User: What shape does this take?
Amino acid sequence: MKKINVGLIGFGHVGLGVVKILRDKKTFLAQKLGLEINIKKICDKDIVSKRNINVDRNLLTREAKEIINDPQVDIVVELIGGIHPAKEFIIEALKKGKSVVTANKALLAQEGKELFALAADRQKSIYYEASVGAGIPIIKSLREGLVANKFNGIFGIVNGTSNFILSKMSDENLAFNAALKEAKIKGFAEKDPTLDIEGIDSAHKLILLTYLCFGRLVNVGDIFVEGISRISLSDINYAKEMGWQIKLLAIAKKDADELEVRVHPTLIPKSHLLSSVSGIFNAIYVSSDLAGQLLFYGPGAGQMSAASAVVADLVDLVQDIKAGLFRPTLNTVLDKSIKKLRKIDDIESRYYIRFMAKDQPGVLAKISGILGKFGISIASVNQKERHKAKEVPVVMILHEAKEKNLRSAIEMIDRLNIIKEKSVAIRMEEV
Amino acid sequence: MKKINVGLIGFGHVGLGVVKILRDKKTFLAQKLGLEINIKKICDKDIVSKRNINVDRNLLTREAKEIINDPQVDIVVELIGGIHPAKEFIIEALKKGKSVVTANKALLAQEGKELFALAADRQKSIYYEASVGAGIPIIKSLREGLVANKFNGIFGIVNGTSNFILSKMSDENLAFNAALKEAKIKGFAEKDPTLDIEGIDSAHKLILLTYLCFGRLVNVGDIFVEGISRISLSDINYAKEMGWQIKLLAIAKKDADELEVRVHPTLIPKSHLLSSVSGIFNAIYVSSDLAGQLLFYGPGAGQMSAASAVVADLVDLVQDIKAGLFRPTLNTVLDKSIKKLRKIDDIESRYYIRFMAKDQPGVLAKISGILGKFGISIASVNQKERHKAKEVPVVMILHEAKEKNLRSAIEMIDRLNIIKEKSVAIRMEEV
Assistant: This one.
C-alpha cells in the first residue's frame, strides 16, 4: 500500500496524541484513505523524556531540518507553538514543497498574512483545524460546509479556561481567584494564565474565524480585548437574577459597512444556547445569510480532541496528494461590503452597569441625570440591599448607547462623592 | 474563466434556491473556486409555472435525458425527491460518468447500498449534505472533520416539523392537534404530515447518520420507529415538572457489541443542550472517542438553508474536477466491533410511565407489585390530582428495565380493572 510520509515537529501533549492516533488507527485510516499515513520523523528539543508511548528511537531527532529537508516527507505538522522558530520551520517547509498542518493560532493570527501568501505562491496548503475549538470541525465548516454563505456575525466561546472559571463562579458561587485556583488544579489553567484569562488566546482564534467569515486577516492590535480577571462574583449573580449569563465572547459582526471585532465579558440571555455552554466546552455561534443561525459545540481543549483535528487536516491533505494533483484550498474572499473596522469607542451596545454608591437620597437622580446628559437611557434599575451608612450596589441595564458616551458618563459619575468605588460596565449582546 | 457545467433535475423549492445562489453569488463562488459553476440545463415536469426568478427559457426542459446524456454536464443535482424516477436518474447519471448531488434522504436510506456501490464502481461521488439538517454541515463533519473518530452514539433532533409541534405543546401548552394545525398554517407541516410526525423522515436521516458513524447502511425495516402523534400535553407537562423535556430523538448507539438504532419520543434532561433546541431547529449530538461530545445546531429546513448545503457539495465536487483527477470520497469503514443490531425488545432504558387508575386504596401496591414481578424498580412516583370516583394519573419514573419486560408488565397492568385507559410509556435517555 502506498504511503504518505509525515514529519512531526513538536512531540508534546498534542504531538503525542497525533502519534497515538496514527499508530492505533493505522488500519482504520488506511481503509478510509486507501493508503497509509506514515510518520517518517519526529522532532523535539526533548527526545529523552519518557512519554506515554513506545516509539522507535530512530524516528526521533532534535533537528527540524532533518524533516524539512527530507524530500520524502510530504506534509509537515508543526505543533511546537509560539512564533519562533515555528514560523521559520513553516516557511522552510513550504519552500521545500511541503504542505503544513498546524495548531498554532498565535502564529497564524500574527504572521498569517505572510504565511498564507507564501503557501498560495508555492501552491501548497496550510491547514489549521486544531487552532480553534480543538476537535470541533469549525474551520472546515466555515471554509467548506458554509462556502456559499456570507456572514453577519460570529459569536464564540473559544477559550476553555475562561469558560471553566466563569462557569465555576456562576454554578458554585466561587470568587474569581478560587475558581482560577481550581482550574489550575484540574490542569485547565496554566501556571501563568494571562493569555487565557485576559482574552488574548480568544483574540487569536477570533482573528482566524474573522478571516474565514469575512475574508479579512485583522491585526491583533485592531481587536479590542478585555479579559475576565475583573469579573466579580456579585456581577455574575446580579446578572443571573435578571436572566443573563456572563460569558467571555469573541465577537465579529457586521453593522452596515463596518466590522466590529472584539473580545470581552458579555451578558447574554440565559435562554440562549451559548449560556448553556459550561466548563471547558467551546461553542461557536454563526449567523449566515443562507444557512441561518448555527451553533458548533464541543470540548475546546484536550490532547486527543486537538489531535483529532490535526489528523483530519492530514487526511484532507493526503487525499489531495493521492489524487496526484494540487487541489488548492478555497480562496478566501474579502467581504467588500465592509469598508472599515469599527473602533471600540464607536460601537453601540446595551450595558450592564454597577455603581457602589452611598445609601442616601438623590443618588439615583444624580446617576441617571449624568447618563441622560450623554443621551443614555435606562432600561431597568435594581438597587440591592440597604445597609445604613454603607455603600449599596446600584445595578442598571441600559438601552443601546455609544461606548464613548458610556465611558464619559461613567467617568463623570465616578467623580461624584456619593460613588465609593470604580463603577463596573459590562457589554451585553442579544446574539 | 473555466466553467463546470451542472444539470439540475427538480426545479421546486430547493432547486429554485440553488439556482438563486448560483446566480446571485456567481462572482463570489468563482473567486473562491477559481472557476465558474454554470447551470447548463434545468429539468422539471412543470416548466410553465411562474417562479420567483427569471431564468432563460432555453435552460428549461421536461426531459431529464437532456441533462443525463449531455457530455458537457459534469455534475447532476437531483432534487425531485421520492424513489422513482429519482433512482433511475441517479443511476443513469453515474453510468454516464457524472457525479451526483442529492438531498433525497428517502432514496438514499432505501436504495443507498446499490447507489453508493455503483458510484464507487464508476469512480464517481454521491454527495448528500442537504439530506440531513439542511444547511448544518453535519455530513461533512462526520465524514471528514471527525474522520479519525470512532463513535459511541449519535442523538439527533432531525425533523423540524415534529420539533416545532413538541416545542409549541411544551412552550404554549397546546394540545397535539392544535400545535399540528399551527405547523400547517406556518408551512412547517405538509397537508399529510405522516412522514414527519410518525418518525419516518427521522428514520431516513438516522440511516445516513448511522452509515457515516458506524459504516453500516441499516435497512429501514431494522429501525424501531415511533412518532409523536400519541404524545399528550399532560405527559409533556408532567415530564417538565420533573425536569425532563420530550423530544423526538433519532438514536444510534453502541452498547458492547450491539448497535441500537431507533426513533421515538424521548425524555431528556432539561439541562441538556438538546432540550433547548426549539421550533424547526435541528441538532445532532455526537459522542466520539477522540473529539468527545459535540453538538451541531441550526435550522433543519428552509429553501436557502438546504440550497446552501447543495451548493457546498457542488463546490466540493467542482474542486475535484478542477484538480483534473478523481478524488474519491473517503471510504466508509464498517465498525467491526458491532456484531449485530439490537432488537427493540432487548434494549434497556429508563421509562416514564403514566397509568390512569381508579382513585382507590391499593392501586399503587398493585401496579408496583406487577412491575416488581418483572424485575422493574421504580425511581419515583407522582400521583397527581385526586378527584373522588374519577381516574387519577399515576406517573412513575422507572430505573433501567428491559423493553420486553416493561411491555409485558404494562400489558398485565392494563388488564387490571382499576386501570381506566391504555397506559403510556416513554423511553428516557440521559444522553
About this structure: Chain A has a mean pLDDT of 95. Residues 345-428 of chain A form a domain with the Alpha-Beta Plaits fold (CATH 3.30.70.260). The radius of gyration of chain A is 24 Å.
